[in-house]
Every structure is written in C-alpha cells, then in structure tokens.
TrEMBL record, chains A, B, C:
Naturally occurring in which organism (per UniProt): Agarivorans gilvus
Keywords recorded for this protein, A-Z: Cell membrane, Ion transport, Membrane, Sodium, Sodium transport, Translocase, Transmembrane, Transmembrane helix, Transport
Job description of the protein: Catalyzes the decarboxylation of oxaloacetate coupled to Na(+) translocation.
Enzymatic reactions: oxaloacetate + 2 Na(+)(in) + H(+) = pyruvate + 2 Na(+)(out) + CO2
Cellular location(s): Cell membrane
Source organism phylogeny: Bacteria, Pseudomonadati, Pseudomonadota, Gammaproteobacteria, Alteromonadales
Name by which UniProt lists this protein: Probable oxaloacetate decarboxylase gamma chain
InterPro entries (UniProt xref): Na_pump_deCOase, OadG
UniProtKB/TrEMBL annotation, chains D, E, F:
Claim: Transport is one of the keywords in the record: yes
Compartments, record wording: Cell membrane
Organism field: Agarivorans gilvus
UniProt topology in membrane: Multi-pass membrane protein
Entry keyword annotation includes Transport: yes
The protein, known as: Oxaloacetate decarboxylase beta chain
Its job: Catalyzes the decarboxylation of oxaloacetate coupled to Na(+) translocation.
Cofactor(s) the record lists: Na(+)
Catalytic activity: oxaloacetate + 2 Na(+)(in) + H(+) = pyruvate + 2 Na(+)(out) + CO2
Complexes and interactors: Heterotrimer of an alpha, a beta and a gamma subunit.
Enzyme class: translocase
Amino acid sequence: MMDLTELLVEAATLMGVGMIAVFCFLSLLIVAVMGLAKVAPPIADIAEPKPASPKSTQPANNAAVVAAISAAVQQYRKAK
Amino acid sequence: MMDLTELLVEAATLMGVGMIAVFCFLSLLIVAVMGLAKVAPPIADIAEPKPASPKSTQPANNAAVVAAISAAVQQYRKAK
Amino acid sequence: MMDLTELLVEAATLMGVGMIAVFCFLSLLIVAVMGLAKVAPPIADIAEPKPASPKSTQPANNAAVVAAISAAVQQYRKAK
Amino acid sequence: MEGLQKLWLETGIANFEPGQLVMMAVGLLLLYLAIVRKFEPLLLLPIGFGAVLANIPNAGFTEEGGLLYYIYHVGIETGVFPLLIFMGVGALTDFGALIANPRMLLLGAAAQFGIFATLFGAILLNTIPGFDFTLADASAIAIIGGADGPTAIFLASKLAPDLLGAIAVAAYSYMALVPIIQPPIMKALTSKEEREIQMEQLRPVSKREKILFPIAVLGLTILFLPAATPLVGMFCLGNLMRESGVVDRLSKTAQNELINAVTIFLGLAVGSKLSADKFLTVETLGILALGAVAFAIGTASGVLMAKLMSRLSGGKINPLIGAAGVSAVPMAARVVNKVGLESNPHNFLLMHAMGPNVAGVLGSAVAAGVLLSWVG
Amino acid sequence: MEGLQKLWLETGIANFEPGQLVMMAVGLLLLYLAIVRKFEPLLLLPIGFGAVLANIPNAGFTEEGGLLYYIYHVGIETGVFPLLIFMGVGALTDFGALIANPRMLLLGAAAQFGIFATLFGAILLNTIPGFDFTLADASAIAIIGGADGPTAIFLASKLAPDLLGAIAVAAYSYMALVPIIQPPIMKALTSKEEREIQMEQLRPVSKREKILFPIAVLGLTILFLPAATPLVGMFCLGNLMRESGVVDRLSKTAQNELINAVTIFLGLAVGSKLSADKFLTVETLGILALGAVAFAIGTASGVLMAKLMSRLSGGKINPLIGAAGVSAVPMAARVVNKVGLESNPHNFLLMHAMGPNVAGVLGSAVAAGVLLSWVG
Amino acid sequence: MEGLQKLWLETGIANFEPGQLVMMAVGLLLLYLAIVRKFEPLLLLPIGFGAVLANIPNAGFTEEGGLLYYIYHVGIETGVFPLLIFMGVGALTDFGALIANPRMLLLGAAAQFGIFATLFGAILLNTIPGFDFTLADASAIAIIGGADGPTAIFLASKLAPDLLGAIAVAAYSYMALVPIIQPPIMKALTSKEEREIQMEQLRPVSKREKILFPIAVLGLTILFLPAATPLVGMFCLGNLMRESGVVDRLSKTAQNELINAVTIFLGLAVGSKLSADKFLTVETLGILALGAVAFAIGTASGVLMAKLMSRLSGGKINPLIGAAGVSAVPMAARVVNKVGLESNPHNFLLMHAMGPNVAGVLGSAVAAGVLLSWVG
Ligand code: NA
Ligand code: NA
Ligand code: NA
C-alpha cells in the first residue's frame, strides 16, 4: 500500500485534525449545555417533579401499564 | 390494475362481508363464553384456588424452580 | 444401509464402550473433586467470604454497576 | 486544513437533504408528544427517536449493515415483533369483565365498522388525483380504526410495508388522542338520561372460565378465521400463560422484560420507516385524515350499538360504554368512566367499559384476519 | 353471498385434514397435562400450544415466513436454545451436595445404562416390520433415558430432527411421570432394612471448591470428550457465573429472564414439530415405549449401583438414592425422599439424593457427548 | 477395544495443538483476573470463558454451526451488541455532574490525546520488522486509549476484526488496571498544593436540562459528525429513556436484563476471537504495549489540561480530576477521589470527577466517529 513515510504523515495529520475536531465538538457542547441552563429554570423544576411523578410518569395510554400494575399487585398479594 | 368502480364495488362488498364476519364470529364467542359459565362452577372455584396455589402452582418438576427459589432466598439474605 | 446384524453389533459395542466411557469420565471427576477438597481449606473459606462480599463482589470497574445501584435506590425510594 | 476539510465534507451540515430535515422535525415532534404531552410514550418515544436516527445523512442506519436495517428485517418484516408484543399484551390482559358479561363482545364487533368504512373511504380517496391506494393499501390504512398498535403494524408489514411508518404513527397518535376525539361524539349521540344509567355489578368469574376463555377464542379462530391465528394465537398464548397459574415465571417475563425489549426495537424499526420519500407524500395526509375518520366512525358505531342494546335490555346498559369498543385499552375505558362521571358523579363505568374495551382488541384482530384472508 | 363464500373457503372447517385434528387433540392433551395435572408445565404448556398452532390449516405457522418456522430455524436448528437453557440451568444448580460426596457421581454414571440399553433396544425394534431406526435415530431416542430435556432436544436436533417432536414430548412426559414410574422399581429392588438406612450429614463445602468445580468439569470434558463441550461448557459457564459471585447481574439474568424467554420459544418450536406426518407414525409408538423402558432401566441400574456401594461401604449408603441418578432434577430426589420417609418417618434423604441427581445431569451430558462423537 | 480407540481419537488430548493450549491458558488467566482479582469481571469472565471454549479441539464452537460462530456473526459483525450495551450504559448514566459544570467536557476532550498519540505510535511501530499495521488497524488499536469497552469493540469490528480479540482484552484489562496505572502519573504531574484544592459544591440540575442534554448531544453529533451517531445515538436513546421519566419500563429493561444478556453474549463472542493464530502474534504484544501507553498519555493529557484550567480559573479546579477524563467510569473517578483524599482527608472529589468521567465517554465516542469518518 502506502509507504511508511506517507502513513506517518497521515497519522500525524489525523492526530492534529482529530484533536481539533474533538475539542471543537466538545466546546460546542459546552456552549449548548450552557444554553440549556438558561432554557430550563433549575429550581422550580427540581422541586416540582417528585410529587407529580407517581401519577404522571406512566400515563398508561395502553393496556400494558394498567395491567402490569394490577398484575404486580396481584403477585405481591400472592407473595405475602 | 382494476379500475376504480370495480375497486369501489369490492370495497363495499368487503365492508359488508367483513362486518357480517366480525359479528358472526363474536356472536359465536358470546355463545361459547356462556357455555363456559355453565361448565365452570363459579363460586367453589373462586374460593378454592387461593390456599392451594402456594403449594401447587409451581410443581417444579425440574431443577429450575427449586433452584430459583433457593437462589432468590440467598440473594435476599445477602441483600439484607 | 447396514444390515440389522451389523447394526445390532454396533449398538452392543456402543453400549459397552459408552458405559465404560461414562464410568471412566465420572470416576476421573471423583478424583478431581477429591483433589479440590484438598486445594481448598473448607472452613476458613466458608467463614471468610460473607463479610468481604458486600464490598468486593462487585468491583464495579465500569459505570453500569454504580449506576445500577443508584438507579435501584432511586426506584426503591420512589416506590415507597 | 485539508484534513479538517475532509472531515467537513462528512458532516451532517454538508450533506443534509431538505426532506431529512423535515423528517427529523417530525421525529422531534413525536418525542415532544411522548415526553411532554405523554402521548403513548412507550411507543412514540422509540418511534420518534428512530425517525431521527433514520434521517441522519451518511450514518447508514437504514442501509444494509445499519442497526435499524437489521432490526426492521429481523423483527418487522418477519412479523415477529408485533406478535411478541401481542403475546405480552395477552399476558397483561384480564378478561374477567368480558367473561362476566359476554354480550359486550357485540360492542367490540360494532366498533370495527370504523375499519371497514375507512377501507371504503380509502378507495373513495382514489377519485382525488394523486391518490392511488390498492385494496391492500386501503386495508392496511383502515386497520388504524382498530385502535390497536401491534395489529396495525402486523397488518401493514404484510399488506403495505411502504405505508408502515405513516400507519403506525397515525395509529399511535390517534390512540393517544382518544380523550380528545371521543367525548364530543359520545355526547352527541346520547341523551343525558342515557349517560346517567347505572349498571349492575359484574358477577365474579371463576379461574376455570378464565383458563378456558383463551382456548375457546383460539378454537373459534381456528375454525372460522385461520388468517387471524397468528395475532389471536399469540394473544391467547400470553393470556393462557397468565391465567393457567402454572407458568408464572414465563408469564412474568412475557409481561415485562420481553415485551419491554421488543417495544424498544419495534419502535425504532417503525421509526426507521419514517423517511422523507415514504412519509412526505400526499398519501400520508390521506392516511392521517382517514385515521381520524376511522376513529370517529368506530366510536360512533360502538355507541349506537350500545344504544340499541340499551333499548333492548330495558335500559340496563349505559350506551357510553360502546365507545370503549374501539379498544385503545385502557384509555377508551377511562374516557367512558370520565364522561359517565360528568353526568352522574356516582356512576363508575370503568369496570363495565373494560369488557367492550378488551372485546375491541379481539374484534380488530378478527377484522385483521378478515382483511388478510380477503386481500393477502 | 359470494363474498361470504370466499371467506368460507378460507376457514379452518373447510380445510382441516384429519391428521391435523388428531395433532390438535395431542396438543390439547399436553395443555391438559400441563395445566390440570401440572406435568412439567414450563415446557409442556408451550409445546402443547405450539402443537395446536402448527396444525392450523392455512395459517402457515411452520411455513417459510411463519412465526414457528423462524423460531425453529433460529433457535433449535442451530442448537442455540437448548444451550442457553443449559446455561440457565447451570446458573440455577447448586453442586454443594455432590462436591461434599463425590462418590455419588458413580450413581449418575450407572443410571445412564438406561440410555445405552435403550439404544440397543431401539435397534432391536427394527426386527419388527415398520420400524427402521438408524443408529442416529436410536441414539436420539435413547437419550430420553437421560431424563434431561435440553440434552434430549439438543441431541435430537443434531441426530434426528424428524423425531424431535416425539422425543421431546416423550422426554418431558416421562420426567413428569417420575413419581409414578420410579417407586415400584425402587421398592422391588431394595429390602426394607436397606430403605431404612440413615446417612451421615454432608460436610459443608467451601466457596473455592464450588468455583473450581465447573472449571474442573469443563477441563475433563475438554480433555476426554470434546463432543460434549457445547452442553457441558454452557452448563459450566452458568454455574461459574453463579458461584464466582462477581457477576451476580449476569447470573441473575441467566437464571430468570433469559431462561424464561428461551423456554417459551423452545417450547413453541418443539411443538411446531408435532405435525401429523411426523408424529402419527408407528415410530412414535416405539419412541414412547422405548422412553418408558429407558426410564425404568435407568432407575433400576441406579438403584443396583447404590446397593453395591451400600454393601462396599458397610451400609452407610441408602440404596434408594441411586434412583435419583437419572436426573429429572429435583423430582427424582423428592421421590427418593418420599419413599425413604415411607420406610422410616425420620429419614430425610433429600439432600443426599441431590448429589446423584445433579450427577445425573452431568452423566447424561457425557453420554450425549459419547453418542455425538460416535454417531455424529 | 477398537470402540474405545475410536472414542480416544476424538478426545481433546489426542487433538490438541500447542497454540490452543496457550490460548486456553490465556482464557484461564482472564478468568483468574475476573474472579480472584475482580478485574472487570462482567466482561472478563465471559471473555475468558469464550476463549477457553473457542480453543477446544474438535468442538467446533467457532466453526459454522457452532454457538460462538452464530453469536459473533449476529452480534459483533453487525455491530448490534456493542450498540445495545451503549444504550444500556446511556440508561445507566447520570449526566447531572457534567451539566452542572460543562467546562469539564474540555477534560474529556484532552484525555482523547491518548487515542490520537497512540495512533501515531502504532504507525511508528511499523518501523520495527514484524509490524505492519494499516491506518485502520492503528485506529482500532488507538481507541483502547478511550478506556471504553463497547466503543473499542464497535470500532475494532468495523476497522480491524482480526485484531478484535486482542484489542478488547487490552481495553478491559487496562480499564481494570486504572487504579494502578493512574496514581503515579497523577502525582508526578501535580504539586501537593494543587492536589489539596477543594472545589465548590455543584449546583442542582433540573429535570428539563437532563432531558434536553441527550437531545443536544445527538443534535451536535448529527450536525458535525454523523459517523459517530450509531454510538452516540444509542447512548443518547438510553439516556433519554432514563431521564424522560415516561418510559420507566423500557429504561429499566435496558439497564438490566437487556444489557446483562447482551454482555454475556458479547463477552463470549469477543472471547471466540482469541484464537492462537490471531492472538499469539507479535502484533498482540504491540497492542498490549500501545494500550498501556495510550492510557498513560490520556491520563497525563487530562491532568495537564486540568492544570491549565486550574490556573485560568484562579485555582478553583483540582487538577487531579483531569485524570477522570479517560472515562473508565466510575473507576477513574474513584481513583481521583482516593488520590485527593491522600493529600487532604476532607477533600471529596468524587462528584467533581464524575463530570470529566462521563465527558470522557462522549469524548471517545467522538474520537471514534472521527476515526470512522477518516478511515472507514
Ligand atoms: Na379494536
Ligand atoms: Na440424566
Ligand atoms: Na474515553
């Protein structure tokens, strides 16, 4: 294939390009995450979900969920 | 393929035949379920299975069941 | 294929060879298991692992284990 | 710099096609509906995510060797995933309410008129230029009216794989919209007095009846509609494992880990069918419109049948429960309960609506069998 | 009316062949045995259901594109499902009793005489017109005497796939019948004094021995019987995961969800082999007869070996425990316990019988390896 | 006697090749490391066991029709297994610490220098006779420095399947050795004062941020690096299922049974690549050496980057946490915590190190994407 020098040059290029790409990408992600913090009001959101979740996490629009719960309850009762 | 009129006629036929088939089928099922109610004495059966089940639901004719239980017990003890 | 007599002879041979093989194999295993008993000091080993296991059974060199535990704890809390 | 340019040429930005962007927006919309609006999240979340993944340029998810390609071919093209889901749903379903009051099966039958009327409607759409649905296409679209996801996916994978994405999305979306679509229709077709009817408590059902029920259902399907036996058979297997009480290990796995794992894969595979060339067509608009019509007709015919039964029974049946005949378990039954409570705060219809609700599952599986044996 | 006639021509009623009806009855019988009689329900329920599904006319479960076709080809033809079950059983098995008293392995060896005697018997059946078993067929049939389901299915899928259905059904049926088949043989071959022998309590076994045991078993199998390594290897992997204590997550999944899901599929796939042309033959009668003989001979040779060991040990071994050497874990060990208690109400043999019982699993896997390396 | 000789010719003893014996010893060594030393047992136990099974003469595990052959072709060659593991790891990962302090992503970036430097090193090894790594080989080897098992297996299966066994073994071995490899490097590059720096408590993170985070990560990957979307996409799917809170059923299955079952199969399949002709080569020595170098360089570059950030932030960042940027979650974070406590017994760095730690997972997935889009 390629001779060694060419390969070494390509590896060196890839080293540089790769690190630049990784840093650029993760830097963009930093910006994006900082943006998220602005979109989302941190504290209200943290306080809120806990009490809501028992009712709303599983809206159970299909049979599976309701049935699963009732099945679990039944099994629990049997197990006792 | 077929021209539109033919298709419409076939769709209409299928509409009629399909609804008849669905009604016939589920009507037969009504008859069958009513038959079940006669075969099975409802109340004795309801009272009976509960005490029997702990012993007999899982006859455990193969290793899996016994071992599963002992494994579960072990895990439970470890977890404590 | 083969005629019946040949087959019967082969079946008889296999019966003999098979039982010899099974007995030899399991006899070797008896020797091996007896060897194990010498390698492993039974009592110290039995007393020892229990206290060690809670900490060390799952060294959790990767994310899965820690996260699994924390997830389980969270679910347990939610479930309460 | 040349190196960075080489990478740049591979970026999504440099390769996006407009259709892909639109389909990603559709995927994100489904994620929004699933997460924020909690519309059928168990399916719409994986479907939406699958739609996003399938439309990434240069990622090859749906090309040979790609993850979604494998999942689709192994699970959907073969029909295995919807059948396993059906087994799990069978293991999760309690037919007690239906066995106690088997007449409710008639409501499950009536609501299937939504399917067959929509089939006719889909063919009628061909009169509009741009539409060219075959009878197989029309059948696959019409099954949306059955309000049953795995049935719709199974039928679409057999009869109209190109429309699978749109059909599945429409089916799950409308199932999630049941609380919005059904109440006005239910109120329009019933009087206040009818909605106030209280129903007698259901009799208890014996274990033996519950064990024999899935066997009876399968038996009748074998005798009269073998084309429906893949769906009905796996459903009955799940239910028999549940009710027999002798294989609790298997039943528990079918109800939990197995159905969960398959649901993830099924959703991703359905989402992978949301590609621009298949979804951004006038047919999709037609499918969405027909789906809404199918639901409305199914609801109406269920309620009308219940009204008829109510008259014949001397007012012992609350016609609202007819709406539960479309299936959409257990959402439709809950809607019935809610509308019933609005008329009479002491009128709890939930248990009574569970009968027609599970009857609707059987009804649409039977309708699917009729379509398969006619068209397939 | 023409339309209804079209549907009618597709019904099961119009298409049933007599053989299919008989096989469905067989399937229903298996369901009855599983649910009502609680005979090995974890396998017989899915097998029975699979038999019903496979014999539905026009449903295509076992044709290319059908569900059972896929499951069979993916899981049984490849041997993957029985091996995964074996891994799970390994993860469920505690070899403590055997490690404490390794001489019990001789009982597990002796009981395999049931296998090899039956092999000879199967060939002998060829003298009757209508039977024409090859050595491979005879080997697959003989393994029924091993009283181990996955081993029988694995061997039959390799040596005699056409007989797989009958062999699997016979194996599981006789395993369920152990409490009926074994006691008379056990009583006939032992005196009352022998049955009353009490055995010494087993020594405790260290964790290190339990970890090294599966490695030792695998090592010997590699050295002397590589043909048995698929079965023994997966069994030892499961046991090593269990005993090592460092991969409890994996061990738990292998013992539960994985083995459960595979059991459902394995059962359905085995059931799909119960077709009229394969099952309603004189060979099946022969297989059923040979299977009963195999069990009886295995039980007898186990007991006789235990009698010999009892004599040589100066009466420290209760010969009843030899019957547990056929495997059929843990049923055979329980039968030993029960028969022991009948003679002496204070004589609990359960723990002592667990040693020969798990030895029987290894013994039949070794026998399967011998058969595979001779015939395969 | 002839018969016994026939069996003898099939034994392992009569058929062993020396290379197989050596590879079995390697397999046993891995089992020892997994069970006794508790080095990454979840992977090294199945890998070690797979290596033993794959090298049994006459057993055919890795030939067509063998168990490991099927598992490898179905799960590794397709890339499906590592992607499912990644989905599970995503469902197990809490990004809270990283969202609270996104600058930590720079540490996850810096540590990837271990990958790219190793790539150059692998090519440089070609100057030594006996080595002939292509750029694809070198890329697959270099990813060991990413300290992330599924990423390494995924990349190796695409770029250098022949080296897969050695690469996977090296990756998991060094991940297990993190507590030994990292501390000396960390101490050599930091002063005692730096190691004593206490960091501020992290702010709480809202549920909405946690839900949007995986979507943002996937969005950027789609825009800039589609080649990384299989890995990043499945990871984000798992994390979205976890954080959305609407599909707890699915998330739980992805975190438990699914990842457990796949881990068993993945380990066995990787182990099946440990054959003598592929593993007992000078390349393997090179891979092992390069892997150690990659880890060391990654650790050093992470720490140096953290030192720089510490200076720029006026001493608010403890440079030890840079070492966690290699990933090896959560081991590297724990090592940071331990080394921190050695300098200052009140300095708990665990939570602060979790940010760079999970950033390292993303960083190496991004690096894998760069390599795939350059070389693949
Ligand atoms: Na329906
Ligand atoms: Na046996
Ligand atoms: Na990394």
